[in-house]
Amino acid sequence: MSDRVIYLDHAATTALDRRVLEAMLPYLTTEYGNASSIYTLGRHAMQAIDASREQVAEILNCRPTEIAFTGCGSESDNLAIKGVAQAAQKKGNHLITSSIEHHAVLHTCQYLERLGFKTTYLPVDGYGRVNPEDVGRAITDQTVLVSVMYANNEVGTIEPVAEIGRICRARRVPFHIDAVQAGGALPLDVSALNADLLSLSAHKFYGPKGTGILYIRQGVRVLPQMQGGSQERGRRAGTENVAGIVGAATALRLAYEDLPEITPRITALRDRLIEGIMKIPGSHLTGHPSERLPNNASFCFEGVEGESILLSLDLLGIAASTGSACTSGSADPSHVLLAMGLPVALAHGSLRLTLGKENTEADVDTLLSALPEIIEKQRSLLV
Ligand code: PLP
């Protein structure tokens, strides 16, 4: 085993980019002011937040005032969904989402159901795609929000969000996009996406953990979920994480600057992985064959447990996942794979490999040379 971990789990999190760390360091050391303080040190902190907001707004093609910084992607999803639902309670009590969302969305809808809301969970096809026409059919005069993810965190399928947004806009229903997996990989122009709200999380694109972003289109009412000070224009109380905000904005800017170089390279590595792994007997590609994240290669293998594959790969210094980081360790098969119609037994044999900018062809080849034997061995143990 080499000293270097072959990290193939970039959908779970990414390493902080050194350039991002450099940008953050002053705000962790010398520029430690509270952005609410009126003296120079405080004003420096506020200026850094304002500049970060402008950088993010440029990438999302929106006004800086439409950007709120939060504590993570989950918080952005919670604020978007609870905030809009609770602000619109007098208008209606119906939510629409998909059956393959991240738990940050699904559990938030379930929470609102306990408060009297009703949720329609849209089905997906065998590739994990929502049919936009289903969204149109599900909207009623009680619908206060539609929330559909940009790209799925387990199988990488890209959803037709711009089309869904077009339908929502025509029916005057706010549309939230959970873009946590798409951030740094796919275009984020909120106007082209017809988005009213959009969630991001910095640690998915080489930024720091502990900083989320929520785009809230001007005019969309969101009830704050945190009471206290008037930070973030009253949308999120609490002293701002200045270093985290600077890190999130810097990471987002760098991700889109680097994109033209990185996307073709990562896509080629992903396709090499898929081609090699599909030669293993009893292997199935999960997710859409072409409408998928450039870095996502996910599979199900007949007659094996995904968790056992992970442990064997770990012994070789390879980090991978069965799918969602939040469900790993639980015995239940993934709700995403089941919603896509996979049989329960096959869904137990899932493996998600998500590439990042530091991965090489050698990493892919190491995985490809190790995996067939691991699977064969697991199958022989289970017979
Ligand atoms: N939404 C999606 C699609 C995700 O993949 C994740 C994290 O994996 C989240 C939301 C939650 O983001 P965070 O880990 O920043 O809370």
Features:
14% strand; 7-stranded mixed β-sheet; alpha/beta; globular; binds pyridoxal-5'-phosphate; 3-stranded antiparallel β-sheet; 383 residues; single chain
| SS elements, strand count | 12
Q: pLDDT under 50 segments (min length 5)?
A: none
Rounded radius of gyration (Å): 21 Å
**Tertiary shape:** globular
Helix content: 25-40%
How would you sum up the major sheet? 7 strands, mixed
State the distance separating the first and last CA atoms: 29 Å
Give the strand order, joined by hyphens, for the main sheet.
2-8-7-6-5-3-4
What is the overall number of helices?
11
Mean pLDDT: 96
Structural class: alpha/beta
Description:
The chain has 383 residues and is an alpha/beta fold. Helix content is 40%, strand content 14%. It contains eleven helices and twelve strands. Strands 2-8-7-6-5-3-4 form a seven-stranded mixed beta sheet, sandwiched between helices. Strands 9-10-12 form a three-stranded antiparallel beta sheet. The protein has a two-stranded parallel ribbon with strand order 1-11. Helix 6 links the parallel strand 5 and strand 6. Helix 3 (73-87) runs parallel beside helix 4 (103-114) and helix 5 (132-138) packs parallel to helix 6. It is globular and about 65 Å long. The mean pLDDT is 96. The structure holds pyridoxal-5'-phosphate (PLP). Pyridoxal-5'-phosphate (PLP) binds at residues 72-74, 77, 102, 104, 149, 153, 178, 180-181, 201, 212, 325. Pyridoxal-5'-phosphate (PLP) binds next to helix 3.
